[in-house]
Amino acid sequence: MVKSVLDYLENAASLYGERCAYRDAKQAFTFGQVRSIARRAGTSIAGLKAWNRPVAVFMEKSASMIIGFLGAVYGGCCYCPLDISMPKDRLSVILKTLDPAAVIYGRGQEEQIRNMDLSCPVFMFEELCLKEEDPGILEEIRGRRTALDPLYILFTSGSTGIPKGVVVSHQVMINNMEWLEEEYGFCPEDVMGNQAPLYFDVSDHDVYCPLKFGCSTIIIPPELFTFPARLMAFLNEERVTGIFWVPFALCTAANLRALEAETPKYLKYIFFAGEVMPLKQLNYWRRFVPDACYCNMYGPTETYVCTYYNVDREFGDDETLPIGRPCGNVDILVLDEKGRQILPGDKGEGELCVKGCTLALGYYNDPERTRAWFVQNPRNPHYPERIYRTGDMVSYNERGELMYHDRMDLQIKRLGYRIELGEIEAASGAVHGIRECACVYDPSRQMILFFYTGQKLEKRELSAGLSAKLPKYMMPNRYVYLEEMPRNQNGKIDRKRLKEQYV
After folding, report:
1. Cα 460 from Cα 132, distance rounded (Å)
2. pTM of the entire predicted model
3. Of 1, 3, 77, whose CA–CA distance to 38 is shortest?
4. Taking Cα atoms as reference points, which of 264, 284, 295, 288 lies closest to residue 191?
């Protein structure tokens, strides 16, 4: 019985000990090395006796960072990856919510760690791994583990300006790996090419596929995504067979016509998630790599991957790609505004709600927002049954496939990230002279427009004030000064009118 992702690692180390598991531009680790280093790190973490508490991992994206995750889990904790480029103020808010049992940091982050107001132990990764492992303690921890224990916490944008820490269990990842095996059948000869940051859930496939399937993951140097022709050459040099990328990365390569210079020869699996994949760019990829399996994966962090669509027919450039059908051990409900269920064959749109083994445990230290979004199934009055309200509006097409339409609220998907526009608006309090503000999103150009009243300010003043609170991917692209905000009949800011006039 698989109770933990560590069961996958222990098995992979025994079967493929000398094979490469993870590598980056500087280092490579075999499965045996990953197991050994992670167990030593876990022995150090176990000494904290912080069962199921989070350990923050504050490191550069690297193979070592992945081992840091696994070390935290061996130590009886869950892990929380943190972006080292995150603004200090936002990082402080996250750490206050997280209250970690410890922080693991990498060489090069010493000064940042010193500038943090931390009351917990801190460990440099390189020193953490020097301790001799204690098999007795590690096996005791593994014996206590259940699949519903937390595996990791990922922080997403929050409408109030306070990010939400989504708690994901071992069960979620185990279910996903078992479903991937059933649906696609990865093998030890596969090579995954990682693009997504390790604090973003799209990267989970790159982290856990090696442990389940004995394949390897190579972390692609980020600078190559600026030069797509070199990126294609890299995929061939490394014989990459599978990619789980955000659509933006695929679109950049297509827009710059990179596949005409060199076509990836070994790709078998091209999976994408995090935002809508435009058909024009997808068709470009399908023209040059026609034999690969293309899969559109859908799911917020709170549900992991919950629906998928294997591209099985031709689409015009102006069509929309389905998000498909539920993954294994997942069921979905499409509910209209009155709570009535919309079924395949029915007309109309409704909110997509998810139930099953991929649901997160909730939001860390945030019971109020957990209760608001993880709710009792309104179609089941007989026993407790949680569903997650995604806030995404969907419908069924004539084939019974789910089609994504829009958001019910101010959340957007940009560059693969889910962003609450309310958090950007909340951050405006850091900018002196702003009386009122509102954000709207232009999905065709992936641009965030920031409207404000009060004192007319230079773009650099606005950017400087917001950048102290927001990560780069949340920063507005355009600032628009208004004498007065347009209002609807309820006296609220009329975002629809702003969108009609400026997008």
Report:
1. 52
2. 0.89
3. 77
4. 264
Alpha carbon distance, N-terminus to C-terminus of the chain: 53
d(CA 85, CA 79) in angstroms, rounded, equals 18
Q: Which residues contact 465 (CB under 8 A, 6 or more apart)?
A: 428, 430, 431, 432
| Alpha-carbon distance values, 98 to 168, 203, 337, 416 (Å) | 14, 21, 35, 23
- Residue 462 near residue 491, CB atoms below 8 Å: no
Between helices 31-46 and 135-144, what is the axis angle to 10°?
90
Domains of the chain plus CATH, in order, are 5-219 (3.40.50.12780), 419-502 (3.30.300.30)
Average pLDDT over every residue of 403-419: 82
Structure tokens at 314: 């031709």
Q: Convert the pLDDT of each residue in 294-334 to its tens digit.
A: 999 999 999 999 999 999 999 999 888 999 999 999 999 99
Q: Provide the β-strand partners of residue 298.
A: 307
CB 376 within 8 A of CB 385: yes
User: How many other CB atoms are there within 10 angstroms of residue 60's CB atom?
Assistant: 16
